[in-house]
Design goal:
Chain lengths: 752, 352
């Protein structure tokens, strides 16, 4: 017996839960700290071989020769997969059926289009043998000059940016707005290429059984991965079982199945044995996406009161030579500041890199650091405090569309974070604050906004005759805490204590939970869980209220309340019955219900839906050396209902620390001749260490949003990075008087 | 990874005999060597594991007042030896400013002297590197070189030596005790590392089979204990190599500098002893003008090898700061952020 509820329906029968909102610790925490959590690369099926990628050291050209014989002669090497013997695929890896299908390098030919592209796969009895086999291939290339920087190729206007946004958008007349302005600023900012550096590299263990495929691999989107592999291999999706119970971080790089993961499947096919393939750290710099560099120019005009008369945000970025992903950096100016005229525009070049892809807050992070810096410059040009300037230009409706916000507690974010930070005593002019030890001290602010996105998800709920519950959805936990937050939603959805609920996720044979991305997973899969719970409770209520033997008989019209494993009459809580009693009387061992999560199209048309936040940063700068340290970060965020404040804070902390990273540390350093990234390791691709972030505070601002979804969830995964990077940059200016215009900010920029 | 033979000799003579064969490499902490092997930068045919050799992990006070540090003493153990840190505070500070806690627990004294450059072209086997392949050329010239050498470099090589530990050691006249086929000999640390010249593949005075068995500090090295600092500029607060660093030690009496030691890190293929600067300091008044003069002398021969002219000015400034800090007196406790400018200004809060 299954039931399905339509979306956002308010059922007669409700549940009163107590799990949502509790600061539970991670339910998978014990497994992780004891090492018992099984990550993809921890799997060793019987007969498994090891595959190692041989990757290109040139950026562009073709592989002229590989010494396959030398590799095969090495002890332990079983097979070398090259374009000559790679098993046939049912689909062209260069086909692009829809914008979300990205081209993969699966040894379809000898062409090389970026450094670190796979040119062969060596499969051996041991990792060591496979590694040495790959080295013995000693490739010879016919190389062409690499196109490396934003000025190295012809610029064009992309057909779309991000996920299909127009490259150029207008509201009002920017030139007229600038002309009428009393004060104008224009500034150009550069952000570097950045690469996802999840602790866990992309890994796969693949095993074929006839035309059935079993895979252990980290995935932020199990159903999409299943669909992509199904298309490539021409086998039914249900023949592909992907397990991804834990991810050691994803940040977007595990959103879609990557080329190396598919190569692991191909390798297993070729040798007829299970194969494990794990990327080396440096091999992650190419085939699994990255954040493209940008050069952004902002022009702003302000009237005599410091009100914006125009914003023009132009971004130049890059994609690969063979696929389209354009960092929508300028679109950051669509939502934040009120202006009668806004133009956002993009141009791009094609470089010999892997295709850039989604990396935590794609577009928002890059665009925000430029926008927040420019807003700071505009405030200074108007002689205004940067917070006052932001409040003066507070957007009461979404600036680009004119839509009202479904909710927007940004004023509260500003005021609470400013108070906690002590912003009021900030001097207006830069380079006026020194601490007791003589360090230049600066304070900066940045505003954060991120859309409240929902995708599609499904969940299945079961109530059992023993009174326990089961909730299933193929959700993905990248470390953000999905195992815990979804179990909390499930418990409330089923009207059970959390320990009475068996929550299952992380496997492709469960209902499709959609993608863990776009900060939309908790809202989307959460709503599926919520609705599945409602559906099975409705079924249970039918069984009780329709049966004369039940104390709930006849409560149909009034409805019942599910709580603690019992149904109560809404109008008389003295009349109740346990789930077990209801099911046992009905002679059922279990009942189930299904639910979906999806955006509500009607409210989508009416409202602009965004999470908001404000971040304040304090930096200390050594006056002689220009070495920077962020000594304090205070952020306040309003993102709808908080399912688990401990996990949400953790997301904000992580995002804010990444913001520090963006402003001060992260950069892929590319040799401008070879196109090879020179710091593809964790010693020299800098991310912050503990000593870089001595104090981080995240304040959760209460926000009820009746429009985003029935649970009121917006999403917290990406907003922390936004605003923070700009706040740090602005604090560096306030400390030193030097306006950072390229990121990361370097010592030599501040030496004076 | 290429197959290799693994040997674990029981005695130093056995180790030397084994390592004298071509294609051999000693393994101690392995914190650098294993990475180099995994990356295909070095491919030894024979690993001679000395990590369990007896007698090499002791810290001994010598009768003449000097100190002898066994080559296998772990970086962390040395830095946390209270008597050592008290007598040679800038050495302890340098040790604790290097790498990460995990690496310091594994890395050894001898290995620290022998760590290879962090020049990315040395690690990138598809790039030309005269260190890796003699005569191949230097891809770092004209490449991404903002962190490369500004002193003592040649057109054959512009790499820097990455050690923090070696910088105060060379300032304190440390001596390397080497045992080889011809017996035991002593080489000053100043002479141990070689400048690249036309032969950047030759990085030090070791001959095949030679084993560093100890590093010695002469008696007078401890005389600077009251006025010594190591400072390091880096691009994050911890776990980063020096952009530039400086070790400064003074003996000041009545405002006059009676003895001075100065060395720079991150500027050359070797830890850079600044003897010309020491000459400026000796006998002069201990004040900022003197320190600025010393800084100018230290960098007089500096020239950018690429996009790194800023390092020359930065080095000047860190010399002045290190001398100022040394004059102000060695901190009573090792700062919580060792060698960081954020703990160098007197009275700075050590809160991280």
């Amino acid at each position: 017996m299954t039931l399905e509820l339509s979306l956002n329906q308010q059922p007669a029968h409700t549940r009163q839960g107590s799990s949502i909102g509790q600061p539970l610790t991670r339910r998978d925490g014990f497994l992780k700290v004891t090492g018992a959590a099984r990550y993809a690369a921890d799997n060793h099926p019987s007969g498994m071989l090891y595959a190692v990628l041989a990757v290109s050291s040139i950026a562009r050209g073709r592989v002229a020769a590989l010494d396959v014989e030398a590799a095969k002669a090495h002890k332990g090497v079983v097979e070398v997969m090259t374009p000559r013997n790679r098993p046939a695929l049912a689909a062209d890896p260069d086909a692009k059926d829809h914008p979300f299908m990205f081209r993969l390098d699966l040894l379809q030919n000898e062409e090389v289009r970026y450094p670190n592209q796979t040119i062969a796969v060596v499969i051996a009895e041991t990792l060591e043998a496979a590694t040495e086999g790959a080295a013995l291939l000693s490739p010879r290339y016919e190389a062409l000059p690499a196109r490396v920087g934003l000025d190295d190729a012809e610029s064009f206007v992309p057909r779309g940016v991000g996920v299909g946004n127009p490259a150029v958008q207008h509201k009002g007349d920017v030139e007229a707005g600038l002309k009428s302005a009393k004060t104008r600023i224009e500034a150009t900012y550069e952000t570097p290429a950045q690469y996802h550096n999840a602790m866990e590299p992309h890994a796969i263990v693949a095993a074929w059984d006839g035309d059935k495929l079993s895979i252990d691999t980290p995935s932020q989107g199990l159903a999409m991965a299943q669909g992509r592999i199904s298309g490539l291999f021409g086998i039914a999706p249900q023949n592909i079982h992907i397990r991804s119970p834990f991810l050691g971080g994803g940040f977007g790089s595990k959103g879609m199945i990557s080329g190396p993961q598919v190569l692991g499947v191909l390798a297993a096919r070729l040798v007829g044995r299970p194969v494990k393939l794990v990327l080396r750290r440096e091999q992650m710099y190419g085939p699994v996406g990255h954040r493209a560099p940008t050069r952004q120019t902002l022009r702003m005009g302000m009237d005599g009161e410091g009100r914006l008369t125009a914003i023009h945000h132009h971004a130049k970025t890059a994609s690969s030579t063979f696929d389209d992903f354009f960092e929508p950096a300028a679109d950051a100016s669509h939502t934040l500041y009120a202006s009668p005229a806004i133009t956002t525009s993009h141009e791009a070049v094609r470089l010999d890199t892997g295709t850039p892809l989604f990396m935590r807050a794609p577009g928002e992070a890059t665009g925000s650091i430029a926008l927040e810096s420019a807003i700071d410059e505009a405030a200074h040009a108007c002689g205004m405090d940067p917070l006052e300037f932001r409040l003066r230009n507070y957007a009461e409706v979404e600036p680009m569309t004119g839509k009202p916000f479904s909710s927007k507690a940004l004023r509260e974010c500003y005021s609470q974070a400013a108070k906690a930070f002590g912003w009021a005593s900030r001097p207006l002019q830069p380079r006026l604050m020194r601490d007791a030890d003589g360090f230049l001290t600066g304070w900066g602010v940045g505003t954060a906004t991120f859309p409240a996105i929902m995708f599609q998800a499904e969940a299945r709920a079961v109530l059992k005759a023993d009174g326990s519950g089961l909730m299933e959805t193929g959700a993905q936990d990248m470390g953000q805490g999905a195992w815990t937050a979804f179990a909390q939603i499930a418990a409330d959805g089923l009207g059970l204590d959390i320990d009475q609920v068996d929550f299952r996720a992380g496997s492709s044979d469960l209902p499709n939970a959609g993608i863990a991305g776009g900060s939309g997973h908790t809202a989307t899969a959460g709503m599926a869980i919520h609705n599945a719970g409602a559906a099975v409770i409705a079924r249970l209520a039918d069984l009780a209220t329709g049966n004369e033997a039940s104390p709930l008989f006849g409560a149909d019209n009034e409805g019942v309340v599910a709580r603690g494993g019992r149904l109560y009459r809404r109008d008389d809580e003295n009349r109740s019955e346990s789930y077990a009693e209801i099911l046992t009387r009905a002679g059922l061992t279990e009942i189930e219900g299904h639910g979906k999560g999806a955006p509500d199209a009607a409210s989508q048309e009416t409202y602009a839906k965004h999470a908001h936040g404000a971040v304040f940063a304090e930096v200390k700068v050594d006056p002689d050396f220009g070495q920077i340290r962020v000594t304090r970060l205070v952020g306040a965020f309003a993102a709808g209902r908080v399912i688990n404040p401990r996990l949400v804070r953790s997301q904000y902390y992580g995002g804010m620390i990444w913001g520090v990273s963006f402003a001060l540390h992260e950069e892929a350093i590319t040799d401008r001749r070879s196109g090879r990234i020179q710091n593809a390791n964790l010693a020299e691709y800098h991310v912050p260490v503990n000593a870089d972030v001595p104090s981080v505070e995240a304040i959760l601002i209460h926000e009820d949003d009746p429009y985003v979804n029935a649970l009121g969830i917006k999403g917290v995964g990406e907003i922390g990075i936004i605003g923070t990077a700009g706040a740090v940059a602005n604090a560096v200016w306030h400390a030193t008087g030097v306006r950072p215009r390229r990121f990361p900010i370097r010592i030599e920029d501040l030496l004076g | 990874m290429r197959d290799f033979d693994y040997i674990r000799p029981a005695t130093i003579p056995d180790a030397i005999a084994a390592a004298a064969e071509p294609g051999s490499a000693y393994l101690a902490g392995g914190t650098n060597l294993l990475d180099l092997m995994k990356g295909g930068i070095t491919s030894p045919e024979r690993i001679v594991d000395i990590s369990r050799l007896p007698e090499l992990n002791r810290i001994e006070r010598l009768e003449d007042g000097g100190l002898r540090i066994g080559a296998l003493v772990r970086n962390a153990d040395l830095a946390h030896d209270a008597a050592f840190a008290k007598a040679y505070p800038m050495v302890a500070e340098a040790l604790l400013s290097g790498a990460s806690a995990q690496l310091r627990n594994a890395a050894t004294v001898g290995g620290n002297l022998l760590q290879r450059t962090r020049c990315s072209y040395f690690y990138d086997t598809a790039s030309a590197c005269n260190k890796r392949v003699s005569g191949a050329g230097c891809a770092a010239l004209g490449g991404e070189n903002r962190l490369h050498a500004v002193l003592g470099w040649s057109d054959a090589c512009i790499a820097t030596h990455p050690s923090d530990f070696c910088v105060p050691l060379v300032a304190l006249d440390a001596v390397v005790e080497i045992e080889g086929k011809q017996g035991r000999r002593h080489v000053t640390l100043a002479e141990f590392h070689l400048l690249p010249g036309e032969t950047p593949q030759r990085e030090n005075a070791l001959e095949p089979g030679d084993l560093i068995v100890a590093v010695r500090l002469p008696a007078e090295a401890a005389s600077f204990a009251a006025n010594a600092r190591y400072l390091k500029i880096r691009e994050r607060t911890s776990y980063a190599f020096a952009v530039v660093s400086a070790a400064a030690a003074l003996v000041v009496d009545g405002g006059k500098i009676r003895a001075a030691r100065l060395a720079l890190g991150g500027v050359a293929a070797k830890p850079w002893r600044a003897r010309a600067a020491e000459a400026v300091l000796l006998g002069a008044d201990a004040n900022e003008a003197t320190f600025a003069g010393a800084a100018d002398a230290a960098l007089a021969d500096a020239s950018p090898s690429g996009d790194n002219a800023f390092k020359i000015e930065l080095a000047r400034r860190i010399v002045v700061r290190a001398l100022t800090s040394a004059q102000a007196g060695t901190p009573e406790r090792l700062p919580a952020l060792p060698a960081s400018p954020f703990s160098s200004i007197p009275g700075a809060r050590h809160d991280a």
